[in-house]
Design goal:
By secondary structure, the protein is α/β, with parallel strands linked by helices. It has helices at 2-10, 82-97, 102-111, 138-151, 165-170, 172-175, 203-212, 223-233, 249-257; strands at 17-21, 36-41, 48-55, 60-67, 70-80, 120-125, 128-133, 156-160, 184-187, 217-219, 239-243. The chain is globular and about 55 Å long.
């Protein structure tokens, strides 16, 4: 992956721009890149420094940007999470170097409300918020749950459906470290997608790892049983997150249908 990014970077002309998260450890992808390199992040050593970060009640961020020592403005988002502040910053820089004025950039950011299955607020069940997210890689899951944790008032529930046997077994260690932000974790059967079951990995293996890491994890196979379990246990102000690339979002939708 890093080699591919490096190859892409070396295709840029000298008067082009390579915009990169300078807080990332993967700076070796810049090797032999001739374009202007613009690093951004919270570290003061970056060309563009993200400052004065704050979040509203839904976890949506506002922040200042300092570009080469010059304050260029305060920006507000209508999508939640620190990861979206980083994403927005890269888009802001790309817009600025393309000649777009700051006021237009601010308006564009406020108009952006996200895409389906990316921290999508589906509704409420007895004053508990139901959210769905497509995250199925440990890094994505950490970011998603960290965002939810920022504005939770009650218990944060995560209903996770692992995606493919090969990914689950190859990233089992990473998955076992990805769910600390959740208070209660329910895992259902692995979504096979294109694969056949090799018989070498099961969702119960991940539950065992999580319990060993002091994560409150429970295995429930059927979606209807998960919905029933949630109905019996969630309380007002809780957050229920369905997470995964498969049809796990149906758990949240079925739960919302139970609203009296």
């Amino acid at each position: 992956i890093k080699a591919s990014f490096n190859k892409f970077g070396k295709l840029l002309p000298k008067d082009g721009y390579f915009i990169i998260n300078g807080d990332s450890p993967n700076m070796d992808i810049l090797h032999d890149v001739k374009a202007h390199i613009v690093k951004y992040g919270k570290k003061s050593s970056n060309n563009v420094v993200i400052e004065n970060i704050s979040f509203d009640g839904l976890g949506c961020g506002s922040f200042d940007l300092n570009y080469s020592g010059k304050h260029i403005g305060n920006f507000k988002l209508h999508v939640p999470g620190l990861h979206n502040i980083y994403n927005a910053t890269s888009a802001i820089i790309a817009s600025i170097v393309s000649g777009i004025d700051v006021d237009t950039i601010k308006e564009g950011l406020l108009d952006y409300t996200g895409v389906g299955r990316r921290f999508e607020i589906k509704g409420k069940y007895h004053d508990a918020t139901v959210i769905d997210d497509y995250a199925h890689h440990p890094t994505e899951i950490k970011a998603t749950l960290s965002t939810a944790k920022r504005f939770k008032k009650g218990t944060l529930w995560c209903v996770f459906q692992p995606h493919t046997y090969s990914r689950t077994i190859s990233l089992l260690d990473e998955f076992s470290e990805a769910f600390y932000s959740a208070d209660k974790f329910i895992i259902t059967d692995i979504f096979a997608a294109r694969e056949d079951d090799p018989g070498t990995i099961h969702s119960k293996d991940l539950v065992e790892r999580l319990n060993h890491n002091n994560v409150d994890a429970t295995y429930i196979s059927k979606f209807e049983d998960i919905v029933k379990y949630l109905k019996e246990n969630i309380k007002p102000d809780d957050i229920v997150m369905t997470v995964g690339a498969g049809p796990v979002y149906l758990v949240g939708e079925d739960l919302l249908k139970q609203e009296d």
